[in-house]
Amino acid sequence: MDRYSTDILGLSEVRWPKNGKITLQSGRAMLYSGREDGLHKEGVGIILSNKAKKSLMEWKPIDERLMYARFFTTSLKISIVVVYSPTNESAEEVKEAFLEQLQSVINNIPKHDVLLIIGDFNAKVGRNNEGHESAMGKHGIGERNDNGERLLDMFEISNLVITGTIFPHKQRHKISWISPDGKTENQVDHVIVSKQHRTLILDTRAMRGANASSDHELIRSKVRIKLKKHK
Fold this sequence. Notes:
Blueprint: E1 8-12, E2 19-23, E3 29-33, E4 44-48, H1 50-55, E5 56-63, E6 66-71, E7 78-84, H2 92-107, E8 114-120, H3 146-158, E9 160-162, E10 177-178, E11 185-186, E12 189-194, E13 201-207, E14 218-223
Parallel strand pairs: 7-8
Antiparallel strand pairs: 1-4, 2-3, 3-4, 5-6, 6-7, 8-12, 9-12, 10-11, 13-14
Helix pairs in contact: 2-3
C-alpha cells in the first residue's frame, strides 16, 4: 500500500473467521468478513489508509465471500463490494448461490453511487468480447471459463464493466495469477465498475512489483475521485 500509494485494498481468501474491525500497527484499519462456523477458510477483507478510514460511512460483513463498504468523497459516494468467488470447479449450486447473493447486494446499493466490485472472481473472461461488448473491452487474455460466462451474463443485466479488459496493457500487466510452477497464467482477479461511471476509472493493471506473499498479483485501479472526511 505504501509503494503504490493505495488508499483502499481489497483482500480475498483472508481465512479469518467471524467478522470485525481492527487497527493495524501502521494505523490503517482492516475490516473483515469470514465464516460464522469458525473455520479458517475463504474470507474477505479490506484495508483502509488513514484518509479512507476517515471517509468510511458504513460497512457490512455479509458472509465469507462478500462484504460491503461505502465511502464519502468530494462528489459522488463510492460503494465497494469485496468478493472471493467459488472456483470454476465448484458445484453448480455453490456458484449459483454466490451469484444470487452478489446480485442481491448489487440491487441494494444506492443507484447514484459509484459501484466498484473487487477481488478474486476465479473467472476467466477471455480476450473475445463478442456478444458482451457492453460488459468488457477487447483487452482480456486467454479463453473464457464457466465462471467468466456467468459473470458476463450478470454484468450485462446489471450494467457493469470489467475494467481490466478496457486498457491496452502488455500481457504481463493483465495477468493476475501465476501457478507455483510458473507455467500457467490467468486473469481471474478483477475490478468491476458501474457502466455510468466507467470514465472515472483512469487505469486498471497488475502491479508485479507488489511485496505480497501470494501467487496472485496486486490489481490496481486509479479512480478519478477524491476521498473526503465523513462527518
